[in-house]
C-alpha cells in the first residue's frame, strides 16, 4: 500500500560492506543527492538535480546502505503535518485518516510502513520528533553541530540538524553513529567532548537505574488528557526500571514558540531568497518589462506554496529596519534565556522528559486553516532547537486517535544518555 | 536665497570613500575554487556548489583571506578585535548567487586606523573607520548594450566568492585630488603587503560619498561638526574603478553639486552611477528607494577568534619606512628613494642590484635607466623581475668598463627590452666590446693628421677643438672607445 511517502523512488546502492550493509534508507527530499532530484517538496525545485551528495549521503553510501528514494515533506520543512508538500499529503500508516506529522512525514511513514528500514529526516523545530511520535517510530534530533548539514537545503540554518528515524531506539542509534562526526565542509560541526560517550548503539541497553528524569511542568500544561495519561504511564515504567523523576520548571519555554517562529522565519526569508526563477523554478510569467524584481516576485508567486510565502513574508518583516529590534533581536534574547534555563535544569537532572507532541495526530486537513494552532503544537519540540540540544522521541503508547511519543532531552552531546533512557521503554 | 547672494558662498566638498579591493589569495573566501582566472576560461567553470550558492552548500572561511585582512589591519594601524563575526546582507541582484552577500557588520576584522599620504606637497592623514571582509558577487554582461537597453543579461559566477576587503574612510577628504592621492597610497601599501594586485581587472572598486558645506563650517584643523555633515544632502557615487576615475568622478560631482547650490537648488540625496565613457554621474535611485539590507548573523560561520593567531601574522616594511631607510642606508636623494620604493617589486629589485654594486650606480641604473625605458614601453618592473640576472650582468659590464655607459644605455638595455635578448648577445651582435688600445691609438693619429685646422685651433686655446677631435675618434671607432681614454690620448699626443 502506498502512503505517498516518497516523492522520488530510486535505488542507489552503497559500498559493498559497512555498518549499514543490507539496510535500506529513505532520505528526506531536502538532503542533496548527486544526480537525483531534490525537491524540498516544492514546485520551485521540481526539476532541480544537485551535482553533489550531502555529507550524510556520502556517509550512508560508505556505510553500505542502499538508498531507496527521497521522501515527501512539508514544503521546505515548513509544516507539522506534511500537508504543505507540493507532491500531495502522506498517509499515516499507524493512524488511518490522520497526518503523519511533519515536516519529515514521508520519512516517518516509510519506516512505519516498512518501506524502508531506516530514514533520514531533518529537524528544525521538531520535524523529526513530531512525525516519529505520530507514526509510532523512533526519531532523534542530534546536538547542533554533531551531524553535518552540508547538502541539507536550509530552512532555518541556526536551528536544524539531520537526524535518524527507525523502528527501534537501537537502530536509530546505529544510524546516528554513521551520520555523526565533524565535517570540513560544515564549519558549525564540532567533535563531541573527549569524555562524551559516542558508541550510541551500545548505549541502547535499557539501563536507567540511578537516572534522574526532570519533568518540566510547563511542557505538560497544554497536553491532551489522553496524551498525558500515556506519558505518565511511560514515566512510571521508567521509574519501575530504576529511574527517579522530579518536577522542574523552565519558565523561558513560554516564550519559545514565538521566539522560534521569529528566528526560523527570519532565516528562511534569507535562505530561500535564491529561489528567484533565474536558476531554479519557473521564470515568472506575465509582463516582462525587464524589471528583475517583478520577474523574481512572479517566479516566487508561482513557485512557493501558501505556508512558505507566509513564513518568508513574516521573516522579511521581522528583519526589516524598524522592526528588527522588536522582533528578531528580542527573539534572540529569548533564545539565550531558553539555553540558560536548560543549562540550569541539567545541573540537577540527567535528562528531561515530556510528551513529544501535546496532541495525537491531527485529522487530515484539520490544521491547514489555522496556522497558529499548528505552530502551538510545536511547543514541546522547538525549545530544544533553540537550545541546540539533543532529543529523542520514542513510542510511548497509543490513544484512539493514534500513537503518542515520549520526548527525552539531554545536555549537549548527551546523545548516549537519551538513547539509553529511550531504550528502556519498549 | 537669491542667485546673487548664492554666488557669494564659499563652498567646500566633503568626501568619504568606501574602497573595495580584491585580496590576493590562492582560493576563494568560502570555498576551494581558485581565484586566478585561467587564460580564455569559459564562464561558470571556476565554480563549485558553494560559490554557486547551490541549495545546501555551506561556506567555510579561508584562513588565507583572514591573514590578508589582518595584514591590512596592521598596516592601517587598526584595532583587530579578539573576535570577528559575519553577517548576511540581503538584497536581490542576479550577480549574487544566494541573493544575499556574506559580509561583516557589527564586528569587522579591522576597526579604526589611519593612512598618511602626500598631496600637492602637503602631508595629510585620513581616518579609516573600519575594514571588513566579504565575498565578491559574480559578474553580469548585458547583451547588446547597457543595463537599461540590453535584450538579456548573462551571468558569470567565476568571480563569485573572490575575497574582498571593504575599507571605509571617515569623510576626511576635501577635494577630488586628495581622494586620488589617498587611493594611490592605499593601493601602494596593499601591494607592499602582497595582498593586492592593481593590474588585475576589477581589483579596485570605489564608492564615494560627496556633499557640499559652507567653507566657513570647516574648523582650523579641517574638521566639520556632525550636525553640519548630517544636514548636508550627499550623493553616493558608484562604479569607480581607478584612481584617475575617482578624481574625475568626484571633480564632476563636486562641480555638479556646487552649481546646484549656487543656483539655489537643493542637492538630492541619492545614489549616482559614474559613467566613465561619458565622464558624468547619472542618477540611479533616490533616498526613498534606498535598500534595507536586513542584516543578521550568518549562523553558518561561527565567530572567528583571531586573538593569539594575529600576533603570528607579520607584515613587511611599508613604503614610508622603506623610503626613509633607502635615504639613510644607500645615501639616496629624496627623488630616487621615492622612485625606488614606488612599488615593492621595484624596491626589491633595487636592493638586489645594490647588494653587488655601488648604491649610487645601482640607483642610476634602476631608477633612471630601467624604469625610464620600461615606462616608455608601457611595461612594469614585474615584466622583468625574472630577468634580474641579465640586468645585473649589464650593470657589471658597465661597472668593469667592458662597454661604454652610452652603449649600455642606448643600445644594450633597449634591445634587451625590445628583443628579449641577454646583454652578452647584444654586445656581441652589435660589436660593442670596447675597441682595443691599438685601434684607438690609430684612430687618434688619424684624427690629428686629417684635421690640421682643429689641431691649430687647439693650440690657439679654443675649447671646442678637443671635443671635435674626440668626436672624430668616437665616430671612427663606432662609439666603442671610452671617451675619457680618447680625451687623454689626444691631449698626450697634442701636448707631446
Question: What are its keywords?
Answer:
heterodimer; A: 426 residues; alpha/beta; Amidase signature (AS) enzymes; eleven-stranded mixed sheet; 13 helices; B: 496 residues; alpha+beta; Arc Repressor Mutant, subunit A; nine-stranded mixed sheet; three-stranded antiparallel sheet; 17 helices; 40% helix; elongated
Describe the model.
The complex is a heterodimer of chains A (about 425) and B (about 500). With about 425 residues, chain A is an alpha/beta fold. Chain A has a domain at about 5-205 and about 355-425: Amidase signature (AS) enzymes (Alpha-Beta Complex). Chain A is built from 13 helices and 11 strands. Chain A has helices at about 55-60, 105-110, 130-135, 170-180, 200-205, 225-240, 255-270, 290-305, 305-320, 325-345, 370-375, 380-385, 415-425, and strands at about 5-10, 25-30, 65-70, 120-125, 140, 160-165, 210-215, 245-250, 350-355, 390-400, 400-410. In chain A, strands 1-3-2-4-6-5-10-11-9-7-8 form an 11-stranded mixed β-sheet, sandwiched between helices. In chain A, β10 and β11 form a beta hairpin. The mean pLDDT of chain A is about 95. With about 500 residues, chain B is α+β, with helices and mostly antiparallel strands. Chain B folds into 3 domains: about 5-310, no CATH class; about 320-430, no CATH class; about 435-495, Arc Repressor Mutant, subunit A (Orthogonal Bundle). Chain B has helices at about 5, 65-75, 175-195, 225-230, 245-260, 310, 320-330, 335-340, 345-355, 360-375, 390-400, 405-420, 425-430, 435-450, 450-460, 465-475, 485-495; strands at about 10-20, 85, 85-90, 100-105, 110, 115-120, 120-135, 140-145, 150-155, 165-170, 205-215, 235-240, 270-275, 280-285, 295, 305. In chain B, the strands form 4 sheets. In chain B, strands 1, 5, 6, 7, 10, 11, 12, 13 and 14 form a 9-stranded mixed β-sheet that branches. In chain B, a hairpin with a 2-residue loop joins β6 (about 115-120) and β7 (about 120-135). In chain B, α14 packs across α16 and α14 (about 435-450) packs across α17 (about 485-495). Chain B is elongated. The model of chain B has no long low-confidence stretch (mean pLDDT about 90). Classes of the chains: A alpha/beta (about 425), B alpha+beta (about 500). The interface of A and B includes residues 45 and 321 of A.
Amino acid at each position: 500500500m502506498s502512503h505517498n511517502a516518497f516523492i522520488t523512488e530510486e535505488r542507489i546502492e552503497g559500498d559493498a560492506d559497512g555498518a549499514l550493509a543490507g539496510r535500506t534508507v529513505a532520505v528526506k527530499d531536502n538532503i542533496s543527492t548527486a544526480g537525483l532530484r531534490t525537491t524540498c517538496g516544492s514546485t520551485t525545485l521540481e526539476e532541480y538535480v544537485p551535482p553533489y551528495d550531502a555529507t550524510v549521503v556520502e556517509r550512508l553510501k560508505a556505510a553500505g546502505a542502499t538508498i531507496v528514494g527521497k521522501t515527501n515533506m512539508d514544503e521546505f520543512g515548513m509544516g507539522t503535518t506534511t500537508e504543505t508538500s507540493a507532491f500531495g499529503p502522506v498517509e499515516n500508516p499507524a493512524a488511518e485518516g490522520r497526518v503523519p506529522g511533519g515536516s519529515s512525514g514521508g520519512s516517518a511513514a516509510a519506516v512505519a510502513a516498512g518501506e524502508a528500514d531506516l530514514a533520514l529526516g531533518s529537524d528544525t523545530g521538531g520535524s523529526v520528533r513530531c512525525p516519529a511520535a505520530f507514526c509510532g517510530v523512533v526519531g532523534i534530533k542530534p546536538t547542533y553541530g554533531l551531524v553535518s548539514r552540508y547538502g541539507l537545503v536550509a530552512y532555518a540554518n541556526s536551528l536544524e540538524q539531520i537526524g535518524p528515524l527507525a523502528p527501534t531506539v537501537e537502530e536509530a542509534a546505529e544510524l546516528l553513529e554513521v551520520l555523526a562526526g565533524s565535517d570540513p565542509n560544515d564549519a558549525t560541526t564540532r567533535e563531541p567532548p573527549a569524555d562524551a560517550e559516542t558508541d550510541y548503539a551500545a548505549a541502547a541497553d535499557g539501563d536507567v537505574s540511578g537516572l534522574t528524569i526532570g519533568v518540566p511542568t510547563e511542557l505538560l500544561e497544554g497536553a491532551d488528557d489522553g496524551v498525558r495519561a500515556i506519558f505518565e504511564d511511560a514515566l512510571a515504567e521508567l521509574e519501575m526500571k530504576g529511574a527517579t523523576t522530579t518536577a522542574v520548571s523552565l519558565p523561558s519555554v513560554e516564550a519559545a514558540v514565538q521566539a522560534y517562529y521569529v528566528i526560523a522565519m527570519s532565516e528562511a526569508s534569507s535562505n530561500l531568497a535564491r529561489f528567484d526563477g533565474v536558476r531554479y523554478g519557473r521564470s515568472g510569467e506575465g509582463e516582462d518589462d525587464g524589471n528583475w524584481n517583478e520577474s523574481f516576485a512572479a517566479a516566487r508567486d508561482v513557485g512557493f506554496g501558501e505556508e512558505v510565502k507566509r513564513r518568508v513574508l513574516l521573516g522579511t518583516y521581522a528583519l526589516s529596519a524598524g522592526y528588527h529590534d522588536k522582533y528578531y533581536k528580542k527573539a534572540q534574547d529569548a533564545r539565550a534565556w531558553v539555553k540558560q534555563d536548560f543549562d540550569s535544569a541539567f545541573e540537577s537532572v540527567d535528562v528531561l522528559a515530556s510528551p513529544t507532541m501535546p496532541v495525537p495526530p491531527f485529522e487530515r486537513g484539520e490544521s491547514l486553516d489555522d496556522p497558529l494552532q499548528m505552530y502551538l503544537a510545536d511547543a514541546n519540540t522547538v525549545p530544544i532547537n533553540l537550545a541546540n540540544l539533543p532529543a529523542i522521541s520514542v513510542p510511548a503508547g497509543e490513544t484512539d486517535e493514534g500513537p503518542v511519543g515520549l520526548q527525552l532531552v539531554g545536555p549537549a552531546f548527551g546523545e548516549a544518555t537519551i538513547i539509553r533512557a529511550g531504550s528502556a521503554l519498549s | 536665497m537669491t542667485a546673487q547672494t548664492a554666488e557669494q558662498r564659499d563652498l567646500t566638498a566633503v568626501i568619504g570613500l568606501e574602497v573595495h579591493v580584491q585580496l590576493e589569495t590562492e582560493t576563494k573566501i568560502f570555498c576551494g575554487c581558485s581565484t586566478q582566472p585561467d587564460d580564455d576560461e569559459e564562464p561558470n567553470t571556476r565554480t563549485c556548489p558553494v560559490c554557486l550558492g547551490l541549495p545546501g552548500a555551506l561556506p567555510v572561511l579561508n584562513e588565507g583571506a583572514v591573514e590578508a585582512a589582518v595584514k591590512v589591519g596592521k598596516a592601517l594601524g587598526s584595532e583587530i578585535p579578539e573576535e570577528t563575526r559575519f553577517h548576511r546582507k540581503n538584497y536581490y541582484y542576479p550577480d549574487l548567487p544566494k541573493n544575499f552577500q556574506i559580509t561583516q557588520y557589527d564586528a569587522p576584522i579591522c576597526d579604526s586606523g589611519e593612512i598618511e599620504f602626500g598631496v600637492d606637497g602637503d602631508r595629510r592623514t585620513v581616518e579609516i573607520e573600519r575594514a571588513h571582509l566579504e565575498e565578491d558577487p559574480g559578474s553580469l554582461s548585458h547583451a547588446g548594450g547597457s543595463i537599461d537597453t540590453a535584450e538579456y543579461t548573462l551571468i558569470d559566477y567565476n568571480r563569485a566568492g573572490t575575497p574582498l576587503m571593504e575599507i571605509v574612510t571617515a569623510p576626511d577628504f576635501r577635494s577630488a585630488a586628495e581622494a586620488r592621492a589617498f587611493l594611490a597610497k592605499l593601493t601602494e601599501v596593499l601591494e607592499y603587503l602582497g595582498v593586492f594586485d592593481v593590474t588585475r581587472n576589477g581589483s579596485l572598486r570605489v564608492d564615494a560619498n560627496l556633499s557640499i558645506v559652507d567653507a566657513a563650517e570647516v574648523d582650523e584643523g579641517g574638521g566639520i561638526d556632525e550636525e553640519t555633515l548630517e544636514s548636508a544632502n550627499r550623493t553616493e557615487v558608484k562604479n569607480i574603478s581607478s584612481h584617475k576615475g575617482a578624481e574625475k568622478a568626484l571633480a564632476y560631482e563636486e562641480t555638479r553639486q556646487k552649481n546646484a547650490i549656487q543656483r539655489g537648488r537643493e542637492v538630492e540625496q541619492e545614489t549616482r552611477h559614474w559613467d566613465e565613457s561619458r565622464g558624468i554621474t547619472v542618477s540611479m535611485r533616490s533616498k526613498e528607494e534606498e535598500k534595507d539590507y536586513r542584516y543578521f548573523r550568518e549562523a553558518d560561520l561561527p565567530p572567528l577568534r583571531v586573538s593569539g593567531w594575529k600576533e603570528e601574522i607579520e607584515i613587511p616594511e611599508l613604503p614610508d619606512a622603506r623610503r626613509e631607510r633607502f635615504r639613510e642606508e644607500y645615501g639616496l636623494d629624496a627623488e630616487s628613494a621615492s622612485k625606488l620604493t614606488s612599488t615593492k617589486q621595484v624596491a626589491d629589485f633595487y636592493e638586489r642590484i645594490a647588494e653587488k654594486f655601488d648604491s649610487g650606480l645601482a640607483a642610476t641604473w634602476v631608477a633612471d635607466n630601467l624604469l625610464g625605458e620600461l615606462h616608455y614601453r608601457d611595461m612594469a618592473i614585474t615584466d622583468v623581475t625574472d630577468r634580474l640576472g641579465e640586468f645585473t650582468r649589464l650593470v657589471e659590464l658597465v661597472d668593469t668598463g667592458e662597454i661604454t655607459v652610452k652603449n649600455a644605455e642606448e643600445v644594450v638595455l633597449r634591445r634587451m627590452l625590445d628583443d628579449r635578448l641577454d646583454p652578452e648577445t647584444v654586445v656581441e651582435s652589435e660589436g660593442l666590446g670596447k675597441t682595443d688600445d691599438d685601434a684607438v691609438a690609430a684612430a687618434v693619429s688619424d684624427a690629428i693628421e686629417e684635421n690640421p685646422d682643429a689641431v691649430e685651433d687647439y693650440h690657439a686655446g679654443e675649447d671646442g677643438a678637443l671635443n671635435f677631435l674626440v668626436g672624430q675618434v668616437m665616430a671612427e671607432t663606432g662609439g666603442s672607445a671610452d671617451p675619457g681614454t680618447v680625451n687623454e690620448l689626444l691631449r698626450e699626443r697634442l701636448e707631446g
